[in-house]
């Protein structure tokens, strides 16, 4: 079951380092390769049948974005990697989807792993690995499956919207990361809605026994989001600070903007974590309050009727000589006494604010 | 509902970086622009109908404060920003009200975002974004709506109170920030009063089921205040430490004073956080104590009357041969026995300190 | 009420920076000024009627200690400050008693704020602000009210006890701070006693409903002490590390001694905090244990007598044909059965360790 | 009992420093020595009867791996250590199995201690100490017992798989550490399964009184794993950063890969810790919920039947004059009243959602 | 009472700094002075009647260890201190037993305070202060009372075991500290046993009301041990890092060994702390479980017998016309009905897993 394995590593124990083995679950994904080759003046978009056709772009002056979907196709990834002189351990990281977001700074290129987050149709959060390699005049991107958040980027490239076509590959990298980070906002928006729904439900007392399980599930979702986002802050911060020749001074400002967004998202996540803990507290309090209410009902019923029953029991005794029994109005007097007792009890509980 | 969205980001997902979109809720606010242009000797105060009229102040020797209310008027903000050579990403930050307090140090100017806090008429806390740009001889300020905490500053400028007219734009910036930070004190004063009211209520046992919801609301208010104030400390600390040529040595002392105030406020906020947690604890304890009391009443009533009822039941049996029934004083003796039992029970519970 | 406002800031919102306004509660305190002027060979002690008489000591070679009580007398403080060239913001800090302990290192003098702690007659902790200014050949001290912890210092100056008369103003500053820090030990001693009294009371089960309120009060006292002492550590540590020409190498050792004492006190405070949390835990446990005991009594009484009452009820029925009723010894046999049941129940509860 | 001593130190109190005393429990382990001596071109594998036979490899150019199992054989270890000029304190550390993972950087060699983790047949986690010494052209490894995780390494050496035969001793060290770290993944996989089993059990309400003991055991397992893995991160990080001439630049990348794996494992462990705490919370909640349910059943039964019993008791009284008793249909009317009461009660509890 | 004062400072408030006042409780301890004077070739051991006899060793080439027991003898300590030129504040620290472990690095000597831990006859932990002064060719040690952990060291000196006689005073200091640290292991071993005993007791349900008090006591013991050991780590780490000419390069390795031991002990202490918190949790859970069980018994008894008693009550009514009463087998049928009800109830509770 997919959910069950969520926190598990999928490392292939005992393998020779540098061997490419896809560790994800989408092992039947079709290979999809597309390229955008552009300068300020033109933009050529292609969908490639084989990886070899993308090799020609390596030494052009134009900026090239090669996007590959389907990490199960390790042969093609290895071919592409070898052509661009990518270190084998990095190729291994690309197809091993249990990576934490990280950055590896090599001489000719920068390697970045991050996580794309979205909710699937069952409202389960999905964390998909995206690897990005920035070279002097190219960006390679690797994704598990076809659906992605890059449509707006494609659109901007095609129609030369914004500044993307006028700047270099480092700006393209920024635009891709920004698209992914932007999507985090909609994920935490949904998370926030879920938490508020719980809160409303708990306050309304409208809770069943499964709520603690649901809260537990929510905690996990937050953990998952946290694991995707928190290490990324460090990644972006290192891009900002590193003096890599691949990143131009002018684009640094844009990366700082991403960093601000990540800080913002992280803060929200921490707030949600704290709110979840409070929810659990409130739930416990509501259980205690309910128990209190149950106990009050029991105590009131018992305290009122047990003494009255005792009195009735007294006059149900069969002693030969019980003087009250013969007295004609005894029965009615007794009723009076019992009603007075009853009302007295009610007053007592009223004063104690149990009613 | 305004309250509901409080912790959410309003980022415009998928937009091109640098596009100006107001993300707040006051989209119908009227544009209001005022300028103060002053030196030691004169002070000219104007309310401007169009933003273009403020452009003339850019190259004067006098200090100019341009205050703009109404972040929904993005066109005017863009025009002003372009005239003063402000970076597009900063203009985007000004109108995107989901910023954390931060400082951006550019060559010609310093950009600062902070939050103005106040309680609205419904006693809900409101956090409004204020952006400040400090240039060589000007300060630009941008606010969401008209009501602000700068009246005392205006007054000092008009009547040359204090040192503000004799010093440069960096001191004006200090005065504006100081006015905002001063207001934090009244906000945490109200927070403190609320907490004490809860405390008194819980100690007096005067609590209803909604108190945990109210405590939760209070926690959120504190979170909100915290989010506004804590990052500001770092901002001020960076002003102190940065050797920006825009801030003179002599005014640094004043910024250190603000820093001290912020530390003071932050400390109080952390104390309030801790007190809130204690409140929750005390509330749980008071619930447990109440349940204890309820249980005691039930136990006392049941323990006293159940045995007595049993005795009465015995002599209500219809056996043909129960010798006691014939004995004349049996009934009275039984009453005696039961009264002794009753008193014995009372003593027992008294000794156990349940009464 | 004094206690209520304890954690609140008293900042004068909206005032011009540098304006001297006393923010404490002792606004009717009489002004008291004393001076000690001494070298190794002589020591002149005076009580001055006006602040102006203290001005003459500024340029002498002897060491001068000017001690001023009564922070409400802002005019005199301002006059003294101006004479000694103290920065206006520092004078503002002296009379604003809501300062955190801090150190400000100026060219000609060092400014230190700290808190004197003591228990008043109602056993409430009082935190009084003391400001100290160390100059080349003088120490100025400012206190809210007359009672202080400096008597031992005065005595040592008068009778040339210890090394104080043979050393410079930096040693005098040390002696004054040491006197205040020494007093912290007696404060935490009292705190420790209070905690132990609670512990004993909770273990003895001798608690009433107000104990959680008292624990809460204790928490606040600890918070107050913490706020006074923890920032002081940093202050002293900065004296040690700063290479101020006003502090001689040889006296640094003495400041390190104060630092050790502060670490010691801080550690105790943290231990007390932890013990307070444990107290709360133990109190909750004791409530649960009591409830358990109550429940056991109820359960034992009910479990024993409800079945017996049922049996009695059976033979109280009025069916025409109940064979047992006619049997002569039935009543006694029934008693036997009931006694056996009773004893069986007792054994059962004994085995369950409920008795 | 082995489990009991788990967290205890086994230090030999009062011994002279540098004396070799094996502190583990496998004091009857047979000595086993094997060597791999290889270059790119050949690989000689031997099992040695005496330690002295391994001495010849010290000054060869080929890379030598000497693996020794059986830490109880201190004489042989001392002999080997002396031959390779290992410091006596390091030899002491090798046989004292209560070490934390650590690295000691000497001039001629690097000493590393780490822990091999696996589950034994009773599903108890076992933490076995492995010591590694890296010299210029050799790696020495010391293990407590024979079973280890190095089989894949042996295989790669024999058949020249991967790059191991073409590189130096620093790569061999990497391969050995990598084999151990790889095994951590399977350990945390089992841990994760255990936690999920508990979670499922608690959610299904399928818990007995021993669950808190089992959770406690699980906590300990996690502690044990944590203690083995967390310090190792620092060890690897120091290998990365230290500029030891024994580790070549090119192999550093591989050590960084191990570091990434360790971060990954550590993160999972911290998540498990948090999940365990949540489990305990959920367990407490489930207890409270059950108690609530028990109380509801009691309250419903008592609240319904106690009043009805009271009514029956009334008409069981023996007053001479109770008018209802003579009325012919009274009995049936009473039944009606009681049924109405019964149904009314049910409705009341239904509305309260207790049913 | 000794135990009560445990966490209190004993500082002599208001005293002149540098005045020697013993603050411990063993004010009647007899003075005991012994010296070991040794080189590689000889070792002279003496017990001295007066402190003055130890003065001669100051300028010899041999290494001298002067051990003084009885901190109440301040005159002798002062005399020794003055002879060896020890700073007065250090002498004050030696006799003030409320010190934290610390190191003071002076030009001619290094001063170290640490705590010797052991369990006394009542199984209370005792923390005794030991001061060590390392000079060029001597070590001075000061202890509160006679019993110590140095016997093994004396033995090694006498019989030239190990390397102690061949090395200098810095190695002697190491040997003394190592002896004390070695003893920490036996202390935490006992602590671990205590915790396990509690655990076993709680799991076995074999707990009385005093367990929370005992857990509290245990917490304090751990705090005490923690306070003795944690600051010592920093002390040893500073010896390692400081480039004091009094400590030779070669002995640094030995100090690192102590450091490793201390890290090991500290880790265990932190684990114990965590286990104690878990114990408290488990205890709370066991209370809740017990209450649950009590409630179940009550609920079962009440739920079964209250309805049955109601039925019996019905047929105990004295209505003139109750048709069932006349029916001959009614009584037996009723028994049947009640038995069916009884068994039905049992099944119901069985299904709910309450039985």
Structure write-up:
By secondary structure, chain A is an alpha+beta fold. In chain A, 52% of the residues lie in helices and 14% in strands. Chain A contains 8 helices and 7 strands, in the order βββααββββαααααα. Chain A has helices at residues 74-83, 88-95, 151-159, 169-203, 211-241, 249-314, 323-326, 330-351, and strands at 32-38, 43-48, 63-69, 102-105, 110-119, 125-134, 138-143. Chain A has a 7-stranded mixed beta sheet, with helices on both faces. In chain A, helix 5 (211-241) packs antiparallel against helix 6 and helix 6 runs antiparallel to helix 8. The longest helix of chain A has 66 residues, at 249-314. The radius of gyration of chain A is 34 Å and the shape is rod-shaped. Mean pLDDT of chain A is 87; it is low at 1-11. Chains C and E meet through helix 4 and helix 6 of C and helix 5, helix 6, helix 7 and helix 8 of E. Chains A, B, C, D, E: InterPro entries: CorA_cytoplasmic_dom, CorA_TM1_TM2, Mg/Co-transport_prot_CorA, MgTranspt_CorA/ZnTranspt_ZntB. Chains A, B, C, D, E: Mediates influx of magnesium ions. Chains A, B, C, D, E: Belongs to the CorA metal ion transporter (MIT) (TC 1.A.35) family. Chains A, B, C, D, E: Its main location: membrane.
């Amino acid at each position: 079951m997919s959910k069950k394995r969520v926190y598990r590593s999928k490392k292939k124990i005992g393998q020779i380092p540098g061997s490419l083995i896809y560790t994800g679950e989408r092992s039947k994904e079709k290979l999809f390769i597309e390229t955008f080759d552009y300068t300020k003046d033109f933009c050529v978009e292609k969908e490639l049948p084989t990886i070899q056709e993308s090799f020609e772009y390596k030494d052009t002056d134009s900026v090239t974005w090669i996007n590959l979907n389907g990490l199960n196709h390790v042969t093609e990834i290895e071919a592409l990697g070898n052509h661009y002189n990518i270190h084998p351990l990095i190729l291994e990281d690309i197809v091993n989807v249990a990576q934490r977001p990280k950055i590896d700074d090599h001489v000719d290129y920068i390697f970045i792993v991050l996580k794309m987050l979205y909710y699937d149709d069952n409202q389960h959060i999905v964390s998909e690995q995206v690897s990005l390699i920035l070279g002097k005049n190219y960006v390679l991107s690797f994704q598990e499956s076809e659906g992605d958040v890059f449509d707006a980027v494609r659109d901007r490239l095609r129609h030369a919207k914004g500044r993307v076509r006028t700047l270099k590959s480092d700006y393209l990298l920024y635009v891709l990361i920004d698209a992914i980070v932007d999507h985090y906002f909609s994920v935490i928006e949904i998370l926030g809605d879920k938490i508020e729904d719980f809160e409303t439900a708990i306050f309304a007392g409208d809770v069943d026994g499964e709520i603690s399980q649901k809260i537990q599930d929510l905690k996990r979702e937050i953990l998952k989001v946290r694991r995707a986002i928190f290490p990324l802050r460090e990644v972006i911060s290192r891009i900002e600070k590193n003096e890599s020749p691949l990143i131009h001074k002018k684009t640094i400002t844009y990366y700082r903007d991403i960093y601000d967004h990540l800080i913002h998202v992280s803060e929200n996540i921490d707030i949600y974590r704290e709110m979840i803990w409070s929810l659990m507290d409130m739930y416990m309090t509501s259980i205690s309050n309910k128990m209190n209410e149950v106990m009050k009902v029991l105590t009131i019923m018992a305290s009122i009727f047990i003494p009255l029953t005792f009195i009735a029991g007294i006059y149900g005794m069969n002693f030969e000589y019980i003087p009250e029994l013969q007295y004609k109005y005894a029965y009615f007097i007794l009723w009076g006494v019992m009603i007075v007792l009853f009302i007295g009890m009610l007053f007592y509980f009223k004063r104690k604010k149990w009613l």
